[in-house]
Amino acid sequence: MDVITILQPENHLPSRKNSPLALHARIRQPEFVSRNEPVAMRFLNMYITFPVIFALTAVLCFVSAPRLQDRYGGYRLGTVSFAPDSLAESSLRSCMMPEASSGFESEGIGTEIPSVVFSVVYSMYTVKPGDTVSGIVSRFGLRNMSSILSVNAIDNARRIRAGQILKIPSMDGIVYTVVRGDSLARISERFGIPVNAVLDANDLEQSALTAGQRLFIPGAALSNLELRKAMGELFITPIRGRLTSSYGYRKDPFTGVRSFHTGIDLAAPTGTLIKAALDGKIATSGYSPVYGNYVIISHDGGYQTLYGHLSSISVKRGQRIVQGATVGRVGNTGYSTGSHLHFSVYKSGKTIDPFSVLK
Asked: Among 91, 103, 121, 278, who pairs with 284 as Cys (CB 3.0-4.6 Å)?
């Protein structure tokens, strides 16, 4: 067999035989190449190198990752791999930035009671364009949003309007309506406020109460649930359907592997109208292999909601939407085992249990 010997000049290699350069040279330049070696083998030897194998492996991992990892969106919303033509990933990266603070410091927690309590005095304020409850609270030197929300019986702070007249109390606190059987001692105990403080704030000389009487409770605050309701942060359920999968760990219906389900699944007939869970703005919509036809809505307070597997979409990106308006219709698109809605709620980019914010 004829053999071609390729000689490597000694002056091209370092004097140390085991140096990295010498090893590199020996690896890259084989000493013998057979003339009779098959063409296919020579091609493989020349082109199938470690960098090529590494590149091919990386491409395969990149292509398969969305199917393995994002089957049910088991990651933060900003990292879900949607179809490139939907531009969902890039839009999510911008809209998933944490929202500005909602403006209240003490959610359901009362403020400190002054050492000397005077009777509460109210001033009137006309809401101006662009005003927010949190801004008005700061303007009048109050610390708790509950004060204005309770005194004015505001059930949705995000819907105050220009020209609306608000009563502003001279101190933090809430209004309580006396019910039959109430006593001042019981009310004071309930809110953790001294009886004398309640008497002074309401300019009362005796503790006798009547049903329907309105008392200002200094230093008290709305409960967490009451405050969230007044802030418009309680979501409605998008559809009336049967719960088929809850939030949390479950057995993947396709693979049987235990995995984390980042939302809830509600079974309903194809074509059922889907409602927006809360006022907001359409962050993006489109199609993905995971969620099929989907819509993502951004809400105040750093919340986002995702609606997946839709048969049709009724909204467009950038559109404003109010709670209860139609988002689309229930379907069976994407990775789906039947006609249903996948509904996820995100807070500052991380999933939360939807039932923690649903009415």
From this structure: 91
Q: Clarify whether residues 46 and 87 are in a common domain.
A: no
Q: SS3 for 78?
A: helix
Q: How many domains does the chain have?
A: 3
Among candidate residues 132, 231, 215, 217, the one with its CA nearest the CA of residue 172: 217
HSE-up (13 A, CA, CB side) for residue 19:
9
* Least confident range of 82-91, 246-255, 313-322: 82-91
Distance of CA 258 to the CA centre of its chain: 23
Q: Where is the domain boundary, 215, 230, 245?
A: 230
Q: Give the contacts of 27 (CB within 8 A, at least 6 positions apart).
A: none
pLDDT digits (tens, 9 = 90+) for 281-326: 999 999 999 899 999 999 987 889 999 999 999 999 999 999 999 9
Mean pLDDT of the chain: 77
Among 188, 214, 230, give the residue marking a domain's end. 230
Taking only the tens place, the pLDDT of each residue in 3-27 is 433 344 444 444 444 544 444 444 4
Task: Dig out the tokens for 151 from the structure.
Answer: 């005194």
24, HSE (Cβ side, Cα atoms, 13 Å): 6
SS3 state of residue 94: helix
Domain-located, residue 55:
yes
Q: 175 is in which domain, residue-wise?
A: 122-230
Look at residues 154, 155, 159 and name the one whose alpha carbon lies nearest to residue 131.
159
pTM above 0.85, yes or no: no
Report the 10 Å Cβ neighbour count for 332: 14
CB 342 within 8 A of CB 307: yes
3-state secondary structure of 57: helix
